[in-house]
Amino acid sequence: METTPSLLFRCALPVLLQGFLPVYPELHEKMKYIAKKCGVRFQPPAVILIYENETEGKSRQRIMPVRNFSKFSDCTRAAEQLKNNPRHKSYLEQVPLKQLEKLFVFLRGSLQGQSLAETMEQIRRETTIDPEEDLNKLDDKELAKRKSIMDELFEKNQKRKDDPTFVYDVEVDFPQDGQLLSCSWDSVSVDDF
């Protein structure tokens, strides 16, 4: 069988157009990506995403190089820039910003010469709240960070109506092992005011 240029073009055209978006957006079904794993590569620096294409069901790996990032860079800003980058935005929709920020902290720790264990300890210290810490002595940025950590912890531990262990009216009787201690304000009468 002889292949004519028009036959070859008609057979190859659908294959050639697979990598391009069609002219009519209503004909193009938006690709959905399901994020499976997200990690970081230290040398050369990159964020690696393992995702599944919803239409094909195949697992794929996407390597997103990290450029212009140094040991002095702001991890929050770098994570926001990567997540809002038009090339990676559709892939990173399901990845939380906090997770990307944590990956950038690992990358910055590596650039500063810290080991993985030291960086993990630093992250643990930054994400836990010391009950003995005086929050009045913190600057506004650190205070906002501590408040967001407390809000996340509250949301995580909160019981909602749809939880299986939810009980509407909980009554708790506290045992009185010892004698009750009285305070001076307990003995003040209403007439003293």
Automatic annotation (TrEMBL):
GO terms for biological process: microtubule anchoring at centrosome; vesicle targeting, trans-Golgi to periciliary membrane compartment. The keyword Manganese does not apply. The keyword Cytoplasm applies. GO terms for cellular component: centriole; centrosome; ciliary basal body; cytosol; nucleoplasm; spindle pole. It is found in: Cytoplasm, Cytoskeleton, Cilium basal body; Cytoplasm, Cytoskeleton, Microtubule organizing center, Centrosome, Centriole; Cytoplasm, Cytoskeleton, Spindle pole. InterPro entries: CEP19. It comes from the Eukaryota. Keywords: Cell projection, Cilium, Cilium biogenesis/degradation, Cytoplasm, Cytoskeleton. It holds the Pfam family CEP19. Coiled coil: none annotated. Belongs to the CEP19 family. This is Centrosomal protein of 19 kDa. It comes from Mus spicilegus (Mound-building mouse).
